[in-house]
């Protein structure tokens, strides 16, 4: 539920704010391609498989599906930590988990390979750009896991020492990201349009993880409140009333 709602919020945000910028970028790319056409007009233009309205609907659906997939993976990771420490408060734990996931999956890769409007650039480099972005995501995930391990293993130390070591580890992960190759394809759009698109793209990720954290943490608090009366009854030593059904009492 948390992943689906987060994906829906990000999809509607992108549809209302980012898609108009994408349309401008597509029109700019089409105008640039027309400028480089031969004088005789021998270049053939292929019709798009899906209209822009269909692509808009597909954007929202794709983000909802992505949110559901993220929710499943997040729940598995959360359950593993919860088994080790079941008494932890679900609200700050959900916020901390989502902040770490946002850095690993969204922020760190975006710093190395900022988003570019779809359909802009050389189509022959799409595969290379996807592989580089996937490598950045893998490094980000493994790096945040290393940050968490450093923070856990320094538990006997003072809090400033633990936080400083974790921050230093995160900085080393960023340095490692810059060891990846540069983007081979320049983005031939105006700097203002590109900046706005990248900021809106990152904002959609922030919204996804914020809604996810709020819903997941809220459901966790609800589960804790539901278990509190049961735990209180067991602590008082009051057993649950037995249901004997049709069994006759023994005299």
**Beta strand count:** 0
Number of helices: 6
* Structural class computed from helices and strand pairing: mainly alpha
Main sheet properties = none
Keywords: Membrane, Transmembrane, Transmembrane helix
InterPro entries: CbtA_put
Protein name: CbtA family protein
Organism: Streptomyces aurantiacus JA 4570
Plain-language structure description:
- InterPro entries: CbtA_put (IPR012666).
- Keywords: Membrane, Transmembrane, Transmembrane helix.
- The chain crosses the membrane at residues 57-81, 93-111, 131-152, 164-180, 200-221.
- The protein has six helices and no strands.
- With 251 residues, it is mostly helical.
- The protein has one domain (2-29, 54-182, 191-226).
- Helix 3 (90-112) packs antiparallel against helix 6 (191-235) and helix 4 (126-153) runs antiparallel to helix 5.
- It is globular and about 70 Å long.
In short:
This protein has 251 residues and is an all-alpha fold. The chain contains six helices and no strands.
Show the helix and strand layout:
Elements: H1 2-35, H2 52-84, H3 90-112, H4 126-153, H5 159-177, H6 191-235
Helix pairs in contact: 1-2, 1-6, 3-4, 3-6, 4-5
């Amino acid at each position: 539920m948390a992943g689906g709602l987060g994906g829906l919020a990000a999809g509607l945000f992108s549809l209302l704010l980012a898609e108009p910028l994408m349309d401008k970028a597509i029109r700019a790319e089409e105008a640039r391609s027309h400028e480089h056409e031969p004088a005789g007009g021998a270049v053939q233009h292929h019709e798009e498989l899906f209209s822009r309205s269909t692509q808009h609907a597909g954007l929202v659906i794709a983000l909802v599906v992505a949110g559901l997939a993220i929710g499943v993976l997040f729940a598995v990771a959360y359950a593993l930590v919860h088994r080790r420490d079941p008494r932890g408060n679900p609200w700050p734990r959900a916020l901390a988990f989502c902040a770490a996931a946002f850095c690993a999956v969204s922020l760190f890769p975006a710093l190395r390979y900022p988003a570019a409007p779809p359909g802009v650039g050389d189509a022959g480099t799409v595969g290379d750009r996807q592989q580089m972005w996937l490598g950045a995501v893998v490094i980000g995930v493994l790096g945040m896991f290393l940050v968490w391990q450093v923070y856990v293993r320094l538990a006997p130390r003072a809090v400033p020492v633990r936080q400083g070591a974790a921050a230093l580890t995160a900085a080393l992960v960023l340095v490692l990201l810059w060891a990846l190759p540069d983007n081979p394809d320049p983005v031939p759009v105006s700097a203002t349009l590109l900046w706005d698109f990248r900021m809106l793209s990152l904002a959609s990720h922030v919204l996804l993880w914020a809604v996810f954290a709020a819903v997941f943490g809220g459901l966790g608090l609800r589960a804790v409140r539901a278990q509190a009366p049961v735990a209180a009854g067991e602590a008082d030593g009051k057993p649950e009333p037995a249901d004997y059904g049709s069994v006759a009492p023994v005299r």
